[in-house]
Design a protein that fits this description.
Structural class: mainly alpha
Number of domains: 1
Distance between the termini: 155 Å
Strand content: under 5%
Number of helices: 3
Order of helices and strands: HHH
Low-confidence stretches: 1-17
Number of strands: 0
Largest sheet: none
Helix content: over 70%
Mean pLDDT: 84
Radius of gyration: 47 Å
């Protein structure tokens, strides 16, 4: 007598041994079917749809990769241009620093000459008054 109230299919109805939830393993026939499920003709449409989906994703990822590579190349070019510009500015700064140093030295010489001239003037005035 068949148990019609049971929700689990019988081993005879499924065409082989039933899955034993207590054992936790599939029998050899079920494992073979699962292993070869992709070879079944009914799976062709599913595989085709999955293939299209994967191809779209691959194309999108490839495009994103190309965009990132172009962005990296632009960044590298910009970084190189900035490096060249920085080098030029550093050269200009070095020249200006040398000019500043020379100007400061000249100012020190002029200041020293002025002090000497003022000292000489005071001495000259004293000599002129004394005569």
């Amino acid at each position: 007598m068949a148990d019609y109230g049971s929700s689990a299919p019988s081993a005879a109805a499924s065409g082989g041994a039933a899955f034993d939830p207590d054992a936790g393993l599939l029998d050899a026939e079920d494992e073979r079917l699962l292993r070869n499920i992709g070879d079944h003709p009914l799976m062709d449409r599913v595989q085709s749809a999955l293939q299209k989906q994967l191809q779209k994703r691959l194309d999108r990822v490839d495009e994103e990769l190309r965009d990132k590579q172009e962005e990296a190349a632009r960044s590298a070019g910009k970084r190189e241009e900035l490096g060249v510009e920085l080098y030029g500015v550093q050269q200009q700064l070095a020249k200006l620093q040398m000019q500043l140093e020379t100007t400061q030295q000249n100012a020190a010489v002029v200041a020293e000459a002025r002090v000497q001239a003022e000292t000489d003037l005071v001495k000259f005035k004293e000599v002129c008054r004394g005569s």
